[in-house]
């Protein structure tokens, strides 16, 4: 008799536990079926704005992220991607994110320096030689400090996307040595360190939005520019330039950012969906970025449409010495600890 009551209770507890587990599992993925029919008001919309083309590492990864999120939430969460600065231009997207007009952006690390200038450590010339070095630095204590400075500004960091290492191009003559840059008008992204990088060599840095750079090169407002090969070719910038130096002198990557208030208001299951999906997308983005930049080099070599020069190891040393004042400047401005932990 006692045994039977005990058995019934045990069975009841067991069934309840199984039901609870099932319920929790269902809730985790509790997206109503066929949400494609829902109106925009009923769906959860995430507007993701960026300034590059769709055929770039960032453009492709943003699209993949949107597709996976849509598929995995049965259409309940809709990531709307706005490429090419259609919605907000270079200088506008950060404010739009902070104001909650859009929910996601992936600006170049150089561009977050307007908010947290310490991030310009990533722009220091020849600070990194490989993508892994950048990833390790950002995963380390200094990178985490940089990320917490973004938290303080109302931003939630979801990851780092690579683009690649920057190369230099111009229309006038081959660039082999730092002295070759004297007097050249060079387009830069908005970053104090990039400004310094060119001005210490006697060049004239000019901050110009990525989307209008083609016209500025065409009009001759600037003679040259620095960027990754996937960015250069995506906007056909090479067609307006005669000389390209493969210098790999600086890393260009992105901080994937969400408006923190929006993030905090998301249900936990959606937060999980986003972070889990990004674990996969971030890895995919890295491999696409690396592949795309090397493919673009081959394409440029094959087209014979621009004269390409690869810096030698000895020349690289000369450049590194010429850039020492830039490191000194950063150290005086933001403290030595950011530089001491560079690879
Ligand atoms: C640039 O302005 O050159 C880049 O930041 C564009 C980008 O987002 O890759």
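^ structure tokens above, recovered residues below v
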């Amino acid at each position: 008799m006692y045994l039977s009551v005990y058995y019934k209770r045990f069975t009841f507890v067991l069934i309840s536990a199984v039901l609870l587990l099932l319920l929790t599992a269902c809730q985790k993925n509790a997206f109503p079926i066929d949400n494609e029919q829902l109106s925009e008001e009923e769906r959860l919309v995430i507007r993701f704005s960026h300034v590059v083309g769709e055929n770039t590492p960032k453009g492709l990864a943003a699209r993949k992220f949107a597709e996976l999120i849509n598929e995995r939430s049965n259409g309940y969460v809709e990531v709307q991607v706005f490429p090419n600065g259609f919605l907000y231009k270079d200088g506008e997207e950060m404010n739009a994110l902070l104001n909650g007009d859009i929910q996601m952006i992936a600006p170049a690390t150089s561009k977050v320096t307007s908010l947290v200038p310490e991030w310009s450590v990533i722009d220091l010339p020849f600070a990194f030689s490989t993508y892994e070095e950048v990833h390790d630095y950002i995963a380390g204590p200094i990178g985490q400090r940089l990320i917490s400075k973004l938290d303080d500004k109302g931003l939630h960091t979801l990851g780092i996307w690579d683009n690649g290492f920057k190369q230099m191009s111009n229309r006038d003559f081959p660039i082999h040595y730092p002295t070759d840059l004297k007097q050249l008008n060079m387009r830069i992204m908005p970053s104090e360190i990039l400004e310094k990088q060119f001005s210490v060599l006697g060049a004239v840095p000019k901050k110009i939005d990525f989307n209008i750079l083609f016209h500025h090169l065409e009009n001759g407002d600037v003679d040259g520019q620095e960027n990754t090969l996937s960015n250069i070719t995506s906007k056909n910038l090479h067609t307006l330039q005669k000389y390209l130096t493969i210098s790999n002198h600086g890393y260009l990557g992105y901080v994937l950012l969400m408006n923190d208030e929006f993030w905090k208001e998301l249900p936990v299951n959606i937060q999980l969906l986003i972070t889990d999906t990004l674990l996969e997308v971030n890895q995919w983005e890295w491999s696409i970025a690396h592949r795309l930049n090397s493919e673009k080099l081959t394409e440029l070599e094959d087209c014979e449409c621009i004269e390409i020069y690869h810096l030698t190891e000895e020349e690289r040393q000369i450049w590194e010495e010429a850039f020492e004042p830039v490191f000194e400047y950063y150290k005086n401005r933001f403290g030595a600890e950011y530089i001491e932990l560079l690879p």
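The CA atoms of residues 37 and 199 lie 56 Å apart.
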